[in-house]
Amino acid sequence: MKIGAMNNSSKDLCEQIEFIGEQGFDFLDLTIEPDLAYADNIDAKKINELLKKYNLKVVGHTPWNLPIASTFASVRDAAFVEFKKCLKVFKKLPVKYVNVHPVMSNDVGDPNLVIEYNVEFFKKIVAEAKKYKIKIMMENTKSLFNEIEIIGKILDEIPGLKLHWDVGHANLGNEGEAKTKLVFDKFKKKIAHLHFSDNNGSEDQHLPIGVGNINWPFVMKTLMDEKYNRTITLEIHAPDPSYLLISRDKIKFIIEQLKEENKNTKKK
Questions:
Q1: pLDDT tens string 97-120
Q2: Cα separation of 209 and 130, whole Å?
Q3: Which of 15, 57, 97, 267 has the highest Cβ tally under 10 A?
Q4: Are 95 and 134 spatial neighbours (Cβ–Cβ below 8 Å)?
Q5: From CA 44, how far away is CA 34, in angstroms rounded?
Q6: First-to-last C-alpha distance (Å) of the chain
Q7: Helix orientation angle between 148-157 and 111-130, rounded to the nearest 10 degrees
Q8: 136 contacts 125 by C-beta, under 8 angstroms
Q9: Which segments of the chain are extended strands (E)?
Q10: Residue 240: phi, psi to the nearest 5?
Q11: What tens digit of pLDDT does each residue of 152-187 get?
């Protein structure tokens, strides 16, 4: 498994890439959002230099609040324009997978219509990204788009769409580890990327690993049993960067513990 970190769009992007590289992470989860990481302000040449310097891979992440399900077609069209700006940046970088958030909309009351607008948008962006040999990943978010049945229907309806599974989001309602196991049982071949952060089950707090109530040994055992060997972003929102490093060490410690347990089980 490869462990990476995400930039904070309110801080200098290049300085953060240097920190991520110097701390030995495997990849950068590059979120392109206002204000300091807005698509129009990205220096792709400089980013490529830093990625090469630190031997970092990169995963793409688009703004979480693009109004892709607005009742106004013109607003949805504007969201597509903003997405294409992100895509033009990603095509200049070694990005193969890009995350997009399905969204609820305050101006659409009918949940079926919300799903319809999201599916419409994802179909457009999957086709657009294919031109650049980039694959789109849909992230489980909140409400409708954290329900396994709905996620499954959308994945079935859009060939080529991948799943980005956020374990923290899955825990809203205190079922993160159980839902994660179920998702791997159902959609293992579709899962392309993971986000890790902790919470207490009531809201998306982006806490360091071990601070909330998610059963991380269970989560990691699930990944190891399923032979998951792709990317995991630690999406820890803490002012002190040491909590990001502690979270990485915690995950690595759990992995080593599980490996040791497996060895002891085989000896018996």
A1: 999 999 987 667 788 999 999 999
A2: 35
A3: 97
A4: yes
A5: 16
A6: 27
A7: 40
A8: yes
A9: 2-6, 27-31, 57-61, 95-100, 135-139, 162-166, 191-196, 231-234
A10: -90, 110
A11: 999 999 999 999 999 999 999 888 799 999 999 999
What domains lie within the chain, and their CATH numbers?
2-267 (3.20.20.150)
DSSP string, 203-216: S---BPTTTSS--H
Instruction: Check residue 41 and report its DSSP letter.
Output: G
| Cβ contacts of 170 within 8 Å, gap of 6 or more | 140, 146, 176, 179, 180, 183
Please report, for the chain, how many H helices and E strands are present, in that order: 9, 8
CA atoms of 141 and 104, how far apart (whole Å): 9
As given in the structure block, the two tokens for residue 34 are 């206002």
Distance CA 186, CA 140 (A): 14
**Separation CA 26–CA 21 (nearest Å):** 8
pTM above 0.90, yes or no: yes
HEC string of 108-137 equals CCCHHHHHHHHHHHHHHHHHHHHCCCCEEE
Q: Which residue has 């229907």 as its token pair?
A: 153
